[in-house]
Amino acid sequence: MARTIAEIKAEIAAQFMSDDIIRQKYGFPEGAEFDSVFSKISIENLLFYIVATCTWTVEKLFDAHKQELTALLEQMKPHSRMWYATKAKAFMLGKALVTDTDYYDVSGMTDEEIAAMRIVKYAAVVEVGSVVYIKIAGETDGEPAPIPELSYEGFKDYMREVKDAGVMIEVVNEPAEYFRITMTIYYDPMVMDNTGMAFATGATPVQDTIKMFIKNLPFNGEYRNVSLVDALQKIEGVVIPELHLAETSRNGAEWQEVNAKAIPVSGYYKIYTGSDMNLTFTPYETISNRL
Q: pTM here?
């Protein structure tokens, strides 16, 4: 971005006044200000203004050239999935795009005002065949949630406006997919009881860990059975977390078994009720304690 003429002239003057040889020739003291030594109609002042103006003109020309090149590159370069995800999160509800562009004019707006209008807080893009699927979510109480229907219609119009010509897109704006598991937790009876409650704290670390593990998955991130088991093995009092079955569902009625890993169609999972965690707590007995 080009500097102003005043900024350029001030930099030239500062360098001029700090030069030891020039200071000796002119006889002004160290630390003196340019304006206190030279009048506005002095040769030095006029010369610096002319040089600053020429420099400013060159910088403005470079800025214009950069903008032209950027515009040409934007037109020629096919956009990536990351670009579509970034554009999705840039959507501003209630604001129109600058005419014939794919961006908003946010000059004069505060960061808080911009953030409030950007209702898409999560976005991920996948390509299946010839279709680009854009998964989005807003945020409610700090958790991903679908954006409202009227906002959703506006978002789809926005994406149709900014997308590349000829690209087929589908927007996914759905509630969290259901997630449920069936496990046997072999536990140390000196540390927790048969409901999973820790004697030391009164908390239920197994249930809490499962919920947090699912909640903290990245948006459109991959769930892995082995990673959940690894997280449970770190809990004090859990000896063996044996996973029997993990299932997901888009509607809570039709369930699919997770074969090692899964990615939610909506972009995120949720354990809706405690009954979705079918946990059997069994006290652990070592071989030495058996006949």
A: 0.69
